[in-house]
UniProtKB/TrEMBL annotation:
The protein's name in its UniProt record: HAD family phosphatase
Family matches, as Gene3D superfamilies: HAD superfamily/HAD-like, Putative phosphatase, domain 2
Organism: Aerococcus agrisoli
Pfam families: HAD_2
SUPFAM superfamilies recorded: HAD-like
Family matches, as InterPro entries: HAD-like_sf (IPR036412), HAD-SF_hydro_IA (IPR006439), HAD_2 (IPR041492), HAD_sf (IPR023214), PGP-like_dom2 (IPR023198)
PANTHER family (alphabetical): 2-DEOXYGLUCOSE-6-PHOSPHATE PHOSPHATASE 2, PSEUDOURIDINE-5'-PHOSPHATASE
Length: 214
């Protein structure tokens, strides 16, 4: 029986990836650089350090990349505070079911802690989670396993009784490398062959993961 479930946030619980993508597009377009969804998909699930490196490669200037990323972070906060992102289908059903079963829930997100806390509070789901580890609390972002290993260590979880829910390939790889069972609920990026080998299951929506969480 699983006693703990670790949730990713962006794209899994909250429909934030499309907001990020639009903000990124506006930012690059302001520099006269074309930016399409295929470009954004390269960043899904990675941390700020990795994103900055990709920005610098696209722009050709690290200082300009840092400036753009800072502007985009500020713009993103403005957007989500003006209109809180929607919760993904079945999220409340899953959280209520796990709460009724006495299963402890945690968050492992590449987003910074302040933004994670804001979004969980704004959507009314913060109370479901016993703990959070965010992107600015680790050195290495997904697909490195550090964030999941930190959740396990910080909250003294039993790996064999813990399962991860992820929407991105980078997130799946991080959980897998941490030695944790993982279920993928794809959002923007479809699983590849290796991902299928590393997950317990790939499901179409969060509610379909419940049978695997017993």
């Amino acid at each position: 029986m699983k006693t703990s479930v670790i949730f990713d946030m962006d794209g899994l619980m909250l429909d934030t990836e499309k907001v990020y993508a639009q903000v990124n597009k506006e930012g690059f377009n302001s520099l006269g650089i074309e930016f399409e969804m295929k470009d954004y998909l390269k960043y899904v699930g990675v941390g700020e350090k990795e994103t900055l490196a990709m920005y610098a490669e696209m722009i050709g200037d690290m200082d300009k990349a840092k400036e753009l990323l800072a502007r985009e972070d500020q713009r993103y906060l403005e957007v989500i505070k003006d209109q809180v992102p929607d919760m993904k289908d079945d999220l409340l059903k899953v959280l209520d079911t796990l709460e009724a079963r006495g299963v402890d829930c945690y968050v492992a997100s590449s987003t910074n802690l302040a933004t994670v806390e804001y979004l969980l509070e704004a959507t009314g789901i913060r109370r479901y989670f016993k703990g959070i580890v965010a992107g600015d609390q680790v050195t290495n972002a997904k697909p490195d396993p550090e964030i999941y290993l930190k959740v396990v260590a910080d909250y003294n979880l039993n790996k064999e009784e813990t399962i991860v829910l992820e929407d991105s390939i980078h997130g799946v790889n991080a959980a897998y490398k941490a030695g944790l069972d993982v279920i993928m609920v794809p959002d923007l990026v479809a699983p590849d062959e290796l991902t299928y080998e590393r997950v317990l299951a790939v499901v179409g929506r969060l509610g379909d993961a419940l049978p695997f969480l017993d």
